User: Fold this.
Amino acid sequence: MFNLQELVRKNIWSLAPYSSARNEYAGREARVFLDANENPYGEPLNRYPDPLQLELKKRLAAIKGIPEDCIFLGNGSDEAIDLPYRIFCQPGIDNVVAIEPTYGMYRVCADINDVEYRPVLLDEHFQTTADDLLNACDEHTKIIWLCSPNNPTGNSLHKEEILKVIQQFQGIVILDEAYSDFASQQPMRREILKHPNLIVLNTMSKAWASAAIRLGMAFASKEIISIFNKVKYPYNVNLLTQQQALKVLEDPFEVDKCVKLLLQERTRMIEAFRLLPICEHVFPTDANFFLARMTDAQQIYNYLVDCGIIVRNRNHIKLCNNCLRITIGKKSENNELLSALRQYK
Ligand SMILES: *Cc1c(COP(=O)(O)O)cnc(C)c1O
Assistant:
């Protein structure tokens, strides 16, 4: 049986969170606010923002199909990646398991929090099995990190294996779906309604074209979300970010159009890469980027830098030797990349 209290660090479970002025006064009717030592001049930025971002969560709940109280909002996914370490992992004692290669922040946050990080190498198709991941766990493993579609490989992990991990692991499974808007298969975020040990991450940085405002999301049981809320900084998402996010969310169709365009460009770019003599392989992708194995990634990378074009060199990453990760840009940008590569010698 899954027992949340057993997984949470004792100091966090018993933590009395900071109670801000705006926490204590949750009503709507008041006209005069003399409770938070704010400056009355300089509206509207003189006031503290809603610490729980309720209006924004209401919108997101409708769009994502997740109850409001199962949503945490943070300063980018970065915050939603860091908090589980601080909530679940006793420094120097506990460990986490993750697929390898994957997004670098899971390891950086483990290192910062002094938590052992146990990578499990993907196979040659960039897939993993529940058994391999579970075999890497011991009694101190608190979290298993999954990322699907995965960065930097681009592919989605097999859904059956993800479900098997969630069902068989007694700790927390975190599934990062930063790129799910670009995937051919359905996102798994609504599985949090069935699985009390699952946390799913989303972000406004990719499909929603808002990396600058720093807004990341975690979806999980309301019990887990309330612990996130206890540990986060009181005003972790500023007012400008909340306002801008609401503005972007007004028009989900605009986002759909943008995603469709990027997917068309992705197909075109992959076909063009396959015809390049310096490209040996393009890996299948479900994201807004693709991984390509080149004849000499380092030299081609340097050449592109000289042309003023920056791609991501993944040459030194496990299983990615001689690979470049190419983000899908605007049509004109993609064409610049292609024409530079066609002139490479
Ligand atoms: C880009 C990316 C994110 C987004 O991070 P933010 O902090 O929200 O900008 C999250 N996870 C993965 C795997 C990514 O590649």
